[in-house]
From TrEMBL:
It comes from Alkalicoccobacillus plakortidis. Gene3D superfamilies: AhpD-like (1.20.1290.10). It comes from the Bacteria. This is Alkylhydroperoxidase. GO terms for molecular function: peroxiredoxin activity. SUPFAM superfamilies: AhpD-like. Residues 30-110 form the Carboxymuconolactone decarboxylase-like domain.
Amino acid sequence: MNRQGHTSTEHHMMVYKKGVGSFEEKMPIFAEKYNDFTEQCFKEGAISKKHKQLMALAMSIHAQDEYCIIYHTKGCIDHGCSEEELLEAVSVATAFGSGAALSQGATLVQEAYRELDNHVQ
């Protein structure tokens, strides 16, 4: 808890909401279009709202976006996710992140080394 009685997470959510509110005032048309778009993306469809929130959480973790991590953790909770489901999403994000690093290292780095090393000598 901080001095105002808020947790770190609550503080981050307040900062986010304040920032977004300010942005919406300054860029109303863009904000409206963006909000309409994301609202459509997160509607119930072939993929449930719950699973869309879990996907967004994993992507937020991979992108290391603290505000989105908090926002989508809350979205997951609001849609009935258990802690185990949240942690599995964390695991998927971790696997993707390390897998992406390995795939880039195993392909692009080696290819660039082969191509560039021939020109340096």
